[in-house]
Write a structure and sequence with these properties.
This is NMDA receptor synaptonuclear signaling and neuronal migration factor-like. InterPro entries: NSMF. The chain has 94 residues and is mostly helical. Helix content is 51%, strand content 9%. It folds into two domains: 55 residues, no CATH class; 35 residues, no CATH class. It contains five helices and two strands, in the order αβαβααα. The longest helix is centred in the middle third of the chain and has 13 residues.
Length: 94
């Protein structure tokens, strides 16, 4: 796992004045002391590359905006509800 993060860090810019951002979705890591420690360890591991991590709550405005960066928000919510319910079938909805 350490090799993955080190190799990923080589793809990040050392020179860019804005830090590179890695979005973690599906769980709220920053509200947990162990999650904050994980982010700090990953930042240290990826040094000298400028990297920040973001993990906003999915239901917040920032979380919705981040989800919309990568996915269709409606389909993401459908997928998320499918994870917690065995009754819903994607084929019936689409």
């Amino acid at each position: 796992m350490i090799h993955f993060w080190k190799r990923l860090s080589r793809l990040m810019s050392k020179v860019n004045p804005e830090p590179n951002v890695i979005h973690i979705m599906g769980c709220y890591i920053l509200g947990n002391p162990n999650g904050e420690k994980l982010f700090q360890n990953l930042r240290t591991l990826m040094t000298p590359y400028r990297v920040t991590f973001e993990s906003p709550l999915e239901l917040s405005a920032q979380g919705k905006q981040m989800i919309e960066t990568y996915f269709d928000f409606r389909l993401y919510r459908l997928w998320k509800s499918r994870q917690h319910s065995k009754l819903l079938d994607f084929d019936d909805v689409l």
